[in-house]
Amino acid sequence: MKRISVRTNFILTTIFVIGSGFFLLFADNTFGDYWSRIITLIAIYAIMAVSYTLVNGVTGIFSLGHAGFIAVGAYTAALLTLPIQQKAMSFFIEPLIWPLNSIQIGFLPATIIGGIVAAFFAFIVGYPSLRLTGDYFAIATLAFGEIIRIVIQNSYSITNGALGLKGIPPYTTVWWSWGWLLVTIIVIGSLKFSSYGRALRALSEDTVAARAMGINVFKHQLTAFVVSGFFAGIGGALYAHWLTTIDPRPTSLGIMLTFYVLIMIVLGGLGSISGAVLGAIFFAIAAQWLRIVESPMNFFGITIPGIPGMSMLIFATVFILIMLFWRRGVMGKKELSWQYLYNLFLKKVGDQD
Amino acid sequence: MSASNLIQDLINGILLGGLYALIAVGYTMVYGILRLINFAHGDILMMGVYFAFYFISAFTMPWWLGFIVGIVGAGALGFMVERVAYRPLRNAPRISSLITAIGMSFFLESLAVVVFGGIPKSFNLYPKFFSRILIIGHTRIQVLTFFILGVTLLLMLALVWLLYKTKIGIAMRAISVDIPTTSLMGANVDNIISLTFIIGSMLAATSGIMWAMRYPQVQPYMGFVPGLKAFIAAVIGGIGSVPGALVGGFLLGMVEILIVGLFPNLAGYRDAFAYVILIVLLMFRPSGIFKVYSEQKV
User: φ, ψ for residue B218 (rounded to 5)?
Assistant: First the structure.
């Protein structure tokens, strides 16, 4: 089999990244505001999905608390960038506590602080939960995620409680979101393919054997969990400045969001970074496309009323069908690399390894 | 807090606990056999309530018949869910069946939104005498309370009888210990698992209907939180143990009501208590009150 050299790989990847940049520039300027927003959303979803797949796919522990970290990032960043007058206006039940009510910082530091605070929460959640395994870990993280949501819903003097935050400046552009996606992929990608990542994959296959080989299971899993939490927070910060309004309902920054991200990574293949990105692209576009079935249609003169909730039903059905018949998803555990594409399209018959 | 308030809270706690316990039984039986957290359990409950609601209001059935039809419908739904979504994955990695269960929960919720609409509906389809209030001493108790308590106790006795006095019950308990050996003893494993799902779903639907009578409304997401709480109840009792699920349910219901009764300003955090209890329990005593034997195979 022909191996693609490291140098060719690097050149091709650079060309691909620059090419994608030009494509985004073109798309941002010509497709109109609506599609610009969708393209931005794709990258936000992709950041959430890639960070989620680091835990659920690569490490092989199954967390259900991802939305909690996204919410922490979203609230932290939004509280830091909200204009001071807006804060005074929104917090009419209880005023915002001291340092937060008088500061307003730029988008980039706010996003990074959002990520760091989310990573800190991931540490607090992960440290006790990672003693558990399998479905117990899943249910414990689900509980932690819900606790985070309930605390947000009840602390009126910090998060404005159930009223949520309004008027968040719409800073998230195509460039911010795709730029952060690039950072996310580089960091999590190099993590996955370092010796550290090999250890993670080893313990996802067989924890006991990996421990026998001298891998500190707890430390490795905790690091992965915290890194995942950091990028979930970044994703949340971008998401907040994309939505401009956030609130702690289960359907917005709660368990529903975890479901959505789970759909993306299951579709793309658990454990594959490129699969997670593909899943996010598919999910964001399909969600827009499926809005058709929810709005009234005129079909040969007969008006069919739209069915609210239909798109979610279709997603759920697809999700179950994938789990039943196509469990490896689009990419399985593989990555979309130049070698992969070469083998897929250019490999000649009889070309042996 | 005055004595009559305390009695009132205790009664409410027992009531809520009984409702949790009935749901928890389904979780614990399924987990005991398949080691699967059936996330869709709470949503089967919700579908059962909707079935009852529509059979009573659309087909003008008498309320008790509508309730029975709803419960049987939930049982059929539980059977189908197991058959379609869980059985093909029985030999797959456990995480796969867990993900499928989450998908199933999401599917049933979306299905309910599409078919029944997302707007909460008021559930007041039972005779008026249930809402009559009896005054005993200084405590005011609804007739409904006695009805729910009576039904809960009756079903629990029936369940214990089924599990410990009948052949089917012996088979169920045997399967939860060792599936291959039980099938060698001549029990049809597939049928017993189906039956477990049917019984669990019917109990959950009964609980759901009584839940809807007490907090009179029905909506597509009503099953999620009770489902999660009932799962926590099952963990408290020791997941896999039916008596554990019953005790855990009562304990959780009681603790929730009493904490809110004693510290009214924490009422907003009510749902968080159960989660905190769950996490603390998982850290320090994951086998629950009724220590359930579990081992990690290498």
Answer: -135, 130
Check A138 against B94: CB less than 8 A apart.
Answer: no
Q: Report chain B residues touching chain A, CB-CB < 8 A.
A: 35-37, 85, 88-89, 92, 94-96, 98-100, 102-104, 106-107, 109-111, 113-114, 117-118, 221, 224, 228, 231-232, 235, 268-269, 271-272, 275-276, 278-279, 282-283, 286, 296, 298
Chain A closest CA to B292's CA: distance in Å? 14
Instruction: For residue range A209-232, list pLDDT tens digits in order.
Output: 888 888 888 999 999 999 999 999
How does pLDDT run across B152-199, given as a tens digit for each residue? Answer: 899 999 999 999 999 999 998 888 888 888 889 888 899 999 999 999
Q: Evaluate whether residue A94 is within a structural domain.
A: yes
* Pick from A344, A133, A310: nearest CA to A218: A133
Nearest CB to B100; choose among A140, A147, A320:
A320
Residue B234 lies in a domain: no
| Residues of the domain holding A196 | 12-254
Domain count, chain A: 1
Q: Residue B48 falls within a domain, yes or no?
A: yes
Q: pLDDT at position B298, please?
A: 42
The ipTM value here is: 0.88
Q: Which of B98, B110, B283 sits opposite A135 (nearest CB)?
A: B98
Distance from CA of B181 to the nearest CA of A (A): 25
Q: Is residue B275 part of a domain?
A: no
pLDDT of residue B297: 44
* Cβ(A342)–Cβ(A3) below 8 Å: no
State how far Cα A216 lies from the chain centre.
Answer: 27
Does residue B151 sit within a domain? Answer: yes
Domain extent for B155 = 25-223
Q: What residues in A contact B118, CB-CB < 8 Å?
A: 308-309
Phi, psi of A134 (to 5 degrees): 55, -130
What's the domain count of chain B? 1
CA angle (A148, A149, A154) in 5-degree steps? 100
CB–CB contact B279 A266 (8 Å): no
Condensed to tens digits (0 to 9), the pLDDT of residues A88-119 reads 888 887 777 777 777 889 999 999 999 999 99
Tell me the C-alpha distance between B191 and A299, whole Å: 46
Beta bridge partners of A303: A298
User: Which CATH number goes with the domain that contains A96?
Assistant: 1.10.3470
